[in-house]
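hey all, quick one before standup. I had two proteins in the batch that finished overnight and I want to keep them in one place so we stop losing track of which output belongs to which input. First protein below, input sequence then structure tokens straight from the run.
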Amino acid sequence: MKKRWTTLVFLGLLLAQLVLLSSQVRHPETGSTQLERTALRAIAPPARLFSGLLGVGSSLSENFRSRSRLQSEVQVLEAQLQTLQMEYARLRSLEGQVERLSNALGYKAPFDGQLRLADVVYVDHSSWLQTLFLFLPGRQASESSPVTAPEGLVGRVILSEGPYSKVQLITDRASGIGAMIERTRRQGIARGAGRSGLSLEYVPLQADVQVGDRVLTSGTDGLYPRGVPIGFVVEVGPGTELFHSIRLAPAVDFGMLDQVFVAMGDALPGKAAAITSASP
């Protein structure tokens, strides 16, 4: 019995070794062994399943984080919307109060014209004379009509021919605008400086001027209505013994203009505009 058991063990070991040797014989085309192919067939499906589960878990985790971020952003936007709605309601209330006071005093704003939408068909940035051309269908713009964009002042019409108008940009070196610093109400003259933007002149050295101050039209030049944004102070320095040297960046990005508004009205009546010397 013992001899028979020994023989069986020996035959089993011999068979196992033969199987092991045969499994190590490499395939003539792929160069892989039978053992490697068997192991691959045994390991690949679980590995693929495990990889898929990891991918699903990672995707779910990323979706959860994205959803959390979106919920946070929605909460912030809802809070901002609520603030803006309250501010809008406050401004509407103030507007109503101003209108009632104006009616009681018989006051009427100097400019009461209409805004007409016009298409920008050409912009000249290359020369020192910075201009653009507009197409205003249905009506011819009058000369010196202010031209604005939602961000602020663009310039004024200097020539009209049918539906087409030539506009002098506020950065043109021949341009001059009655201006004031919004924060302090200090007035001066904003002049075009070409590609450098604009300069704000005749602001005394003792006046408080800071980088970032917004500059608006003052309405004192007989051309532009009051309160239209011109630009922002980007540099303040001592210019002369009396006045600051102030550089402005325009409020409007002229390179992005495709449509503008033309004010179809005069800031001053015709006879008054004819005798004023404030026009640039």
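OK second protein, same deal, sequence then tokens:
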Amino acid sequence: MQQYYVDKIEEQLKKKLPGKASQNKMASSIRIQHEIEMLKIKVPKHSSILLLLYPNDNNLFTVLIQRNAYEGVHSNQVSFPGGQKEKNDTNYLTTALREAEEEIGIDTSKIKILGELTDLYVPPSNFIIHPFVGYCEKTPIFTPQKNEVKEILKVPIADLQNRKNIKNKIMEWEIGGFYETKYYDICNKVVWGATAMIISEFMDVIKK
């Protein structure tokens, strides 16, 4: 049954994606405004993330990480495994797989790439994120990279589909000011911003 479900996800990822309209369900109006303004004045850098699907106890899961505290705009935040494209990376997919291997210690040779989601610009860090969706037939053995990863979060897809886990919160904008935004309440963590927007699009993909 799970393989059928994964095959259907792969099929949907080959069709027209829900795109920004879906992402913006979990974005604040101030974020959308800053995206337009920042893209006019800055040349963005590029990064990739991996939304990894895997079976666990007859359910489908994904994995998130909570980053360590550091001096940067994404300190202590919850995200997908991923990071900046490096010179030796052949393409954005190479970046996603390399970062996943480094950050959560998985064997990326066991991963089948199902497709891509819509690119997403992040104004505070000036990055365009390239999200990839992969599937591992068995539950991976996770080994966090201690320098970057505070905690690995194993998340049932059903928890992301549960609308009761979408809540509102007053957040502080990294470049100044406060605003209200939606977030996913997952594993007792606040999952918001770009990560929540990527999840939002993926939820619309699998809804079909």
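Flagging for whoever picks this up: The chain is about 30% helix and 35% strand. The chain has a mean pLDDT of 90.
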